[in-house]
Amino acid sequence: MPAKIVMIGGGSGLPVIIQPLVKADVDLTAIVTVADDGGSSGLLRDYVNIIPPGDIRNILVAMSTADQELLDLFQYRFQTHDDFLAKHAVGNLLIAALTEMTGDVSEAIARLAKYLKIKGQVYPVSKEPLILKAETVAGQKLSGEAAITAAHQALDSVWVGPSVEGQTIQANPDAVDAILSADMIVYGPGSLFTSILPNIVVPGIREALQATPAKQVYIANIMTQKGETDAYTDAEHLAVLNRHLGKPMVDAVLTNQSEVPDDFVDYQRWGEISTQVKQDPMAIEAEGATVVSRDFLLLRDAGAFHDGQKVASVLLDQLEND
After folding, report:
1. Can you state the angle between helices 13-22 and 54-63, rounded to 10 degrees?
2. What InterPro entries does this protein's entry cite (predicted)?
3. How far apart are CA 230 and CA 234, in angstroms?
């Protein structure tokens, strides 16, 4: 039987690793945050009262084996001068429509997965939209992913609350089952506080991550994130992850050893003032994890990204060597 890999995260980082893994002989599952409240996803979650669809849309496309023409339509985003539909992606609207038609977001995703001929499973971490909350290092409380990101404050911890007062937060049972039956859990790459941790702090998910026999791997970010992780080393990212997991759970950390040229990244274009994440192998080992240091760097579009193929190859090696 193919090895079972569960990817946990959100944002734009996860699809980069998923695309090459789809071509490998593995059983792939993505568990995606439902706390996004910005852009098209935020508008739809408010108007239609559904989980934010953007990250799910991107991962469905990353796992798809359908024709590129269909994927281009699914990803098409209306122009800003189209007042009513401005900035909405077609795929987001389809997820919203199918959720309303079926009354179940899992059924909506399953139908789209069939249409797009995906190889793998995509599960929202919860079937209800959640509100991300944070406390800064200075003790300030923040609410909402967009507000947390815009504040550019050094963060200490995050947690989630229900979007409807008094509602009980429940983990998606499919996500819990996938974690408990996995051979490998992969965190990231992606924003630590707003893409990865919002999944882990959902009640039921952390307990499953503590109980699973799976090998757990963290893909350390290449660049810091403005305000949230300024000057963080790879080991400091890991320490925050383990703290939110409740205890050291990560077995291996994939960390980039290649240098990002000082003059390559266009910080104005990406809206970030960031620096390269420095390596601290001794501190990683002190957290109980093995250091896997490689050239994972891909320079493109005036930015520094993970080379998905290189990362996927190392993840598959980790499976074989376990």
Report:
1. 20
2. CofD (IPR002882), CofD-like_dom_sf (IPR038136), Gluconeogen_factor (IPR010119)
3. 12
Confidence of residue 58 (pLDDT cuts 50, 70, 90): very high
Angle value at C-alpha 204, between 201 and 205, nearest 5 degrees: 55
CB atoms within 10 A of CB 267: 13
CB 149 within 8 A of CB 194: yes
CATH of the domain at 124: 3.40.50.10680
Task: Report yes or no: 221 and 184 within 8 Å, Cβ to Cβ.
Answer: no
Residue 49 confidence (pLDDT) = 60
| Residue-range definition of the domain harbouring residue 295 | 3-321
* 18 and 65 Cβ atoms separated by less than 8 Å: no
pLDDT at position 217 over 80:
yes
Q: 126: how many CB neighbours lie within 10 A of its CB? A: 25
Rg value, the chain, Cα: 19
Domain count, the chain: 1
CA-to-CA distance for 91 and 73, rounded, in angstroms? Answer: 8
Report the pLDDT averaged over residues 182-186: 98
Higher-confidence position of 178 and 53: 178
If pLDDT is split at 50, 70 and 90, which confidence band does 275 have?
Answer: confident
Mean pLDDT of 8-33: 92
Q: Compute CA distances 291 → 236, 250, 252, whole Å.
A: 14, 11, 6
